[in-house]
Amino acid sequence: MAKDSPKTRERSTVSADLPPYFNIDPDAALADLDAPTSTTGFAAIAEACGRGRADLASRGMNEAGQKQLRLFSTWEITRYLIPVAQAHFRRVLKQNPSLPQGQVEVEGGAKWFTLDEVLILRAFFGAQGSKAKDYTPYRPKDLPAKMVAVANFKGGVGKTSTAAHLAMSAALDGYKVLVIDLDSQGSMTSIFGGQVDDEWQTAFPLLARHYGDHLRLENQRRLDRGDPPQPLDEGLTAAMEMTAQDVIQSTHWPNIDLIGAQLNLYWAEFQIPVWRMAARSWKLWDALTDRLEADGVLNDYDVIFIDTPPALGYLTINGLSAADILLVPMGASFLEFDSTGRFFDMLHSTFASIEDGENLAARALGRPEMGFEWDAVRTVITRYDGAQQGELAGLMQAYLGPTLSPHKQDYTALIGQAGEQVSGIYEADYRDFNRETYARGRETFDATYAAFKRLLLGVWRREELEATQEARAAQ
To answer: Are 256 and 167 in contact (CB under 8 A)?
Structure first.
C-alpha cells in the first residue's frame, strides 16, 4: 500500500485546519445551487410557511380545532392563585358543595379546576375569607382601564413574549384583560389562538371610523361655508357602522379578550398618511384612544396590553399615545442598549414634533396647548444571563436609573418549550417537567409581573388619591 509522503500529509493537515470558507470548489457550489427565485417564488415560500405554521399551531388545539387552556391543580391554586392553605381550601370546598369541586383524573388523585372555576373560587374567598389577605387584586372604583404599550423598534428583544406573559399573569391574578395586537406579523394573535381573516377584523376599522367621524364634521363645516363635501369611500362608509365590540374576540382564556392582527393590517401604514394629507386637522394619534373610550372598552376591562410593531410607524404611534404605561424590553448587550437609546430619541423627536405642530395652531387660535404624558415608563431587561451579562446590566442600570426596572427577566428552558408549542409559560403543564423545575422556571415571570403590578398599583393609587383630593376641593 502506498503511503502519503510527508508533504502530502502536511498539505492535508493544513487543509483540515483551515476555516471552512477556504477551498470551496465553484463547480460544487454551482451543483448545490437551486434555480433563481421569481416573485411567485415568494408566494410558494409563504405557502410552505403557512402550512408549517398551521401544523405547529394545531398542536395546542383540542379536537374542535380550538386552543384550550389547561386545568389547574389544587397545589397550583393554593400556591400561585389564591393565598390559602391546601387543607383550608379543601375544607371550604367540602363545606360549600355549591362551589366548583374540580375533577379528579385518577382515583384518589389531585383535584383539577378550570380557570373559570378558579375565578369563582377567588371571588368566594374575596367575599367570605380573611380581610387581611388580598384574594382579589386591587382595582380602584370609577377609574378606567390602564393601557400598557410594550414597544421597541429592535426585534428579538422579547417584546411580544413579555406582553403575552404579562397579560396571562394579570388574568391569573383576577384582572379582566384585553390584548390589542398592532403588529401585522400577528405573533400575539397566534399565541392567543385568534382567527383574523382580513384587516376588517383588526384595529384598522377603529382608526378608519375615527377618521370618518372627523371627515363628517369637516364636511358639515364645508357645507356651512358653501363648499362641497369630501366623499366617504365605500371602506369608510363600512367602518362608520363598526364598533370595538365588532373586532374584539374571546380567547381560550376566560378573562382575556383579543383584538387580533394579520398581514393586511400593515395597509394602515399606507392609508393613514393618505387620510392625514386629506385632512390635516385630523388628530390621528388619538384615534385608538378615542374609539376605545367611545365604545366603552375602558370600562369593560381592567388592563389593556398593546403589542406594537417593531418600527415607529403610524400604528405604533397610536399604541404609544394611547398608553398610560410604556414598557420597553431590551437585552443586556451594547447593541440593544444603543438601539433602545435611539428608540427613545425617536420617541422624543416624533411626539415633540406633534406637540409643536398642534400648539402652534393652538396659540394662534387662543386655545389651551396640548402635551403627551405617560404615567410611567420603564425599560425591562429580558433573556438575561447573569453569568455573562451582569457587568453590562449594572452599567445600564447606572445610566438609566429608575427608568430601568431592577428586575431582570432570566432566560429559562420553559421559554424555549413554550415557543415551540405556540403558547405561554403559564400554559405549560408542570407535569411535563416536575413541580420543582416548573416552580423555578416560572419564578422569573412571576417576578416580572410583580414588578409590573407594583407599577400598575402605584399609578392607580396616585390617580385615586388625586380624584379624592379633587372631590374634596369641589365640596
So the answer is: yes
Specify the pLDDT at position 146. Answer: 97
With beta carbons less than 8 A apart as the criterion, state whether 148 and 325 touch.
yes
Helix, strand, coil shares of the chain, percent, nearest 5, are 55, 10, 30
- Amino acid residing at 404: L
Position 285: which residue type? W
Strand ranges in 102-186 using DSSP code E only, listed in sequence order: 103-104, 111-113, 146-150, 177-181
DSSP structural state of residue 427: G
Nearby residues of 261 by Cβ (< 8 Å), 6 or more positions away:
181, 182, 183, 184, 185, 186, 188, 189, 196, 202, 203
What 3-state class would DSSP assign to 456?
Answer: helix
Q: What percent of the chain has pLDDT over 90?
A: 53
pLDDT of residue 189: 94
pLDDT digits (tens, 9 = 90+) for 435-465: 887 888 788 889 999 999 999 999 999 999 9
Going from the C-alpha of 68 to that of each of 60, 104, 415, the distances in angstroms are 7, 18, 19
- pLDDT tens digit string along 177-206? 999 999 999 999 999 999 999 999 999 999
Confidence grade of residue 20 (pLDDT, cut at 50, 70, 90): confident
Q: Classify residue 192 by its DSSP letter.
A: T
C-alpha distances (whole Å) from 341 to each of 103, 150, 306, 334, 348 are 51, 16, 21, 11, 11
> In a 10 Å sphere around its CB, with 0-12 CB exposed, 13-18 middle and 19+ buried, how is residue 457 labelled?
middle
Q: What is the tens place of the pLDDT at every residue in 268-287?
A: 999 999 999 988 889 999 99
Judged on CB neighbours under 10 Å (0-12, 13-18, 19+), 54 is exposed
The 8-class DSSP code of residue 332 comes to S
Cβ-contact 173, 258 below 8 angstroms: no
